[in-house]
Amino acid sequence: MTRYSKQTRLLLAIDCIIFGFDGSNIKLLIIKRGMEPEKGRWSLMGGFLQPKESLKECANRVLNQLTGLEGVYLEQLRTFSEYDRDPVERTVSVAYFALIDINKYEKQLSHDYSAEWFLLSEKPKLIFDHDEMVKLAQKQLRYKASLHPILFELLPEKFTIPQLQGLYEGVYDTSFDNRNFSRKVLSTGLLVKQKEKDKLSSKKGAFYYKLDKKKYKANFQAFLNFIPNPDKFIT
Question: How many CB atoms lie within 10 A of CB 203?
Answer without folding.
Answer: 5
